[in-house]
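User: Structure please.
Assistant: Input sequence and predicted structure:
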Amino acid sequence: MIEWLDPVRDLSLLAMMVRVVLALIVGGVMGIERSSRNQPAGFRTYMLVCLGSALVMMTNQYISEFFKTGDPSRLGAQVISGIGFLGAGTIILTKRNQVRGLTTAAGLWAAACTGLAIGIGYYEGAIFVGLSIFVVMRFMRHIDAYLFQDARVVSLYLNFESVDYLNFFMEYTKNQDWKIMDMQVHKSRDLGPSGLIVFMIIKLNKRIDHHELVRKVSEVKGLIYVEEI
């Protein structure tokens, strides 16, 4: 522990003010990245989650020290498990079977945990982890995209004119030595009486840039639209 921080680890007015301000700053920093990407939980949401978690731990410490009863970690444990309902509300499944909001949900949970650390006075861990969370959400997505841009397994959203062209596409994948691991087929009124929407997971025989793959697949006869999901 850093000794010069000891005066603000108790329940004095100064300590309370430090924790509140730090929770606002750390939560806000994490929320800035989500707001910049127009996510459902952004700047203010992260600040509120972090601030509320800090208050829970301060209340827990207050009960433990002044009433000489209770477990100092009990309320914090409820926050860690209870924050899931808020995170779940940010996760959606789009009409193209894309799952959105997982990073936002994980970030809210992490913000709550950071707030708990601030609320109990563990400032060093809260600041370091809070900044680390910001770095992960802000910059690591580029690394994530790089790692998966030439993965051998690719998920595609496809529109076909008819089932005959879907059969033709399946024959095409066989000739390319690609393996169809999963496929969902749906009728679509928007594509005409015989139009099909298909979600397909394909395992490639070798690594290939997915942008090049989509361009190559888009030239297949009878395929109206294709997109990686």
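The mean pLDDT is 83.
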